[in-house]
Amino acid sequence: MIHVVRDIRLSGLLLGLSLGALGWFFLLSPGFTDTEGPHGIALVLGGLGTLFGLPVFLNFLAAVRIRHRLLAGEGVIGRWPVRAAGIAEYQALQRQYGIGNSWKPSRAERRDGVEIVFGAETLVIGGRLLSLPTSGLQSIRGIGFEAEPALTLAIVCRAWVKVGSRLTPMDEMLRLPVTDIDEANKVMAHYRAALAGTVIVRPDRWRSRLRAGIVLTLAMPVVALAGWLWADGLRAGDRQGDGIGPLVTMLVGLLGTIAAAVFTLLVWFLHRRQRGGR
Question: What is the pLDDT of residues 135-173, one digit of tens each?
């Protein structure tokens, strides 16, 4: 599961440091031409951090907004509370019967209890979030009830983990105590239909993003070429010291091409999965 509350803070901190490094360079580098020593390091690290950190931050920001909407009751399929005593009893039964569970309640949840909330494609437990395969790489792949030792909604979760030099899918069981069978039945019916492909949530989501990714992947090399031509023109006129604009333009174009290509491949993968591909 993605811990969106923690991850938005970390990604925001890293993005802030990257923007700070860029700001330090632009404020203290005379004419933006000093690219050696600390100034050059600040430019490279700040530029890379901003280029790759901004999409990550925006992704977690979108997840935080989804969480807030669900907790406010918007688009909820089913929800039920689990009190602190219920969590303690449930964990004791699982230990007694040797049942594994990827759900590890936080200290605050063990003390105060937690609410389990399901939206059309997203599960929220406290600060953590898990989605259908159509909207995330860490995803719900199966769902069902277990009656013993306590009524449980058992969810097969798939995450991509690094094994050696490769990313490998790995499944684990997320078991949640059920305190409202009617709400759980609604969740079961909806998610089984969504996993079977008979219900497609937000069918146009990935199509528009795929088009945007293709456009960016084609446009970024043009930006890099423009930077190279700009620099070539300055060299021809013996004006290499006339600013760092060409270098920044080339870097943005080259790194933007890589980022746009990765984004497009990821969106294509999720679009294919939404349409029934595995």
Answer: 666 789 999 999 989 999 999 998 777 777 777 888 899
**Using CA atoms, how far apart are residues 159 and 29, in angstroms rounded to an integer?**
44
**Rounded Cα gap, residues 17 and 141, in angstroms:** 37
Residue 55 token pair: 């999409």
Of 46, 38, 105, 16, nearest in space to 248 by CA = 46
The count of other CB atoms within 10 Å of the CB of residue 60 is 22
Q: If DSSP states are collapsed to H, E and C, what string results for 154-208? A: EEEEEEEEEECCEEEEEEEEEEEECCCHHHHHHHHHHHHHHHHCCCCCCCCHHHH
Cis peptide bond N-terminal to 149, omega within 30 = yes
Instruction: Say what the pLDDT of residue 156 is.
Output: 94
d(CA 23, CA 45): 12
d(Cα 69, Cα 174) in Å, to the nearest integer?
23
* Residue 85: exposure state from Cβ atoms within 10 A (0-12, 13-18, ≥19): exposed
Phi and psi for 180 in degrees, rounded to 5? Answer: -145, 100
Domains of the chain, by residue range, sit at 1-74, 77-196, 203-278
